Amino acid sequence: MRDALLVGVWRFTVPIPQGIWRRHLHEGGDLGFMSQEDHQVRNYVVQELPRAGKPLSPESIARALDLPLSQVADILAKLERHMTFLYRNPRGEVAWAYPVTVDQTPHRVTFSTGEQVYAA
């Protein structure tokens, strides 16, 4: 379920199929402010934080996605401003992207791939 939304329930994550969460999103949420590149950056940091195990710099994100650094910086600022998707540390690196974080929290998640990360 590559496009599933993972919902945390106690110590487990439960995949919600894309058809269900997209329908719910259209009924009550508005992500109209997000461009295709915004989604690309957000999806990348959510997938990469558990792999990296450390905050992601804007430079590393731009390089990985082949986007201009200035565009990535603008996207990160926009996503952080909406206080829903990500948080950057004082160095400007992405430290968490909901639902994962590399900052220590009381909540740990282990993915089926074996990757472990803290939950945001």
Describe the protein's architecture and organization.
The protein is α+β, with helices and mostly antiparallel strands and 120 residues long. The protein has 2 domains: 1-30, no CATH class; 33-119, 2-Layer Sandwich (Beta-Lactamase), CATH 3.30.450.410. Helix content is 41%, strand content 22%. It has 4 helices and 7 strands, in the order E-E-H-H-H-H-E-E-E-E-E. The strands form 2 sheets. Strands 3-4-5-7-6 form a 5-stranded antiparallel beta sheet. A hairpin with a 2-residue loop joins strand 1 and strand 2 (12-16). The longest helix is centred in the middle third of the chain and has 17 residues, at 36-52. The mean pLDDT is 82.
Could you give a quick summary of the protein structure above?
This protein is of the alpha+beta class.
